[in-house]
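To the team - calcium ion complex, inputs and output below.
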Amino acid sequence: MALLLWNGGENGRVFRGGSWVVSKNFVGQGEAAGRAGGDPAGRNDEIGFRCCRTLDADADTDHDFDADATDCAPADATVHHGATETCNGNDDDCNGTADEGGDALCLPGEACQGAAGCVAVGPTCPSGTEMVDNGDGTVTDPATCFVWQKTPPEDRAYSDAVAYCQNNPDGLPGAGWHLPNISELRSLIRGCPATATGGICGVVDICPNCGVSSPCLSPSCSSTSCTGCPTGYYIDGHLDCNYSDWFWSSSPMGGSAYYSWIIRFDNGGLSYGGLIGGGIRCLRSGP
Ligand SMILES: [Ca+2]
Ligand SMILES: [Ca+2]
Ligand SMILES: [Ca+2]
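Output:
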């Protein structure tokens, strides 16, 4: 609390503490008192004055009732002991920690991100190496952040497979469902290095006629590396995986209007075909 401390009008005294300033003139003090040195003519030729300084007994510069000696921000009245901690990157309550409480300082669906404040956040891609079952009919692959349909529907012809994924008749959550291209479908392969993503097999969505031979068509996989699937299935077991079937991709083989690339997950191999009925596993980008 700031108060003004006045001197007693004794001009010339030295006052200690704080910054004394001339604050108030008053005229003719010496004249009125008839003191020695007064002008016999009675003219008001002496000007008296008083000095004052700020009296701040608790040295509280920002007047937030937290003395400068303990206030962690002596010049910021919003920061003091007992203040409400908010998400702003500052230690508002002077307890030595900024933004303690973290995301709880924000609304649901927001994260506390320091000086940036509360920021709306959405789902994030999982970490780790195994896929994550989202419990809603979908599985997310941490390697790609693709969200896959967990359980394939019944087999369909190619054009029906494309429409099935786009129309999402089973109500899978999220938008952008589609039939995978061959690169997306290859990203599902586990334990078959030749045809898994990055393998020597050259067939990818931007080059669907690359490597139309071994090792794409005749991978020598040893059926021991998949996670959670029965031996002999080259796909993560968080997906319903034991299907002995060809699965559609949307990538035409060599630009053909009649053949699309397909994959079997029970041998890890690629082929191409114009099947009447093929397996379907839709995906979308996630999360
Ligand atoms: Ca303060
Ligand atoms: Ca704090
Ligand atoms: Ca804070």
